[in-house]
Specification:
single chain, 152 residues, alpha+beta, 2 domains, IrrE_HExxH, ImmA/IrrE family metallo-endopeptidase
Length: 152
């Protein structure tokens, strides 16, 4: 999903989104139907961060800034998982395969996400599904090595 489409999701939920200069190390924040995105980042990173902050809106409750608390870490993970599903649904990986995209760098560029985000999503999908998952009736997405198998 592209940045503008995510902004529209936020707007549809009544969430105000702002880009502003933030201290280094802070990429984004969500609180009380407001999302702040650090404007110092490249567009692909802003997109991934916006998806994660929307994930907080849809999955988190309360102040979870204290990441030493187990429940807060679980909420952080749920928000990231929401972002992974939003930005990297299996059908987009299949579309990339049909567009003859190969390699993680090219796949990240095609999907409009940073390579680190792509790798974190792949790691999460591997933890959830194992080394592969059936994307639909004709495609199996392999996570290691990354690729798509067409089933006839």
């Amino acid at each position: 999903m592209e940045y503008e489409a995510l902004l529209q999701v936020a707007e549809n939920q009544g969430i105000c989104t702002y880009e502003k200069l933030m201290p280094r190390g802070i990429k984004g924040l969500y609180a009380d139907k407001v999302i702040w995105i650090n404007k110092r980042m490249p567009l692909t990173e802003k997109t991934a961060i916006l998806a994660e902050e929307l994930g907080h809106y849809f999955t988190s409750d309360g102040n979870i800034l204290d990441q030493t608390d187990l429940m807060n870490r679980k909420q952080e993970l749920r928000a990231r998982q929401w972002a992974y599903q939003c930005m990297l649904p299996l059908d987009r990986i299949v579309q990339a395969h049909h567009a003859r995209i190969s390699g993680r760098y090219d796949l990240a560029e095609y999907l409009g996400v940073p390579e680190e985000f792509l790798q974190a999503a792949i790691d999460r999908f591997t933890g959830k599904h194992g080394l592969s998952v059936r994307a639909d009736g004709r495609h199996i997405v392999m996570f290691d090595p990354l690729g798509v198998i067409e089933v006839f």
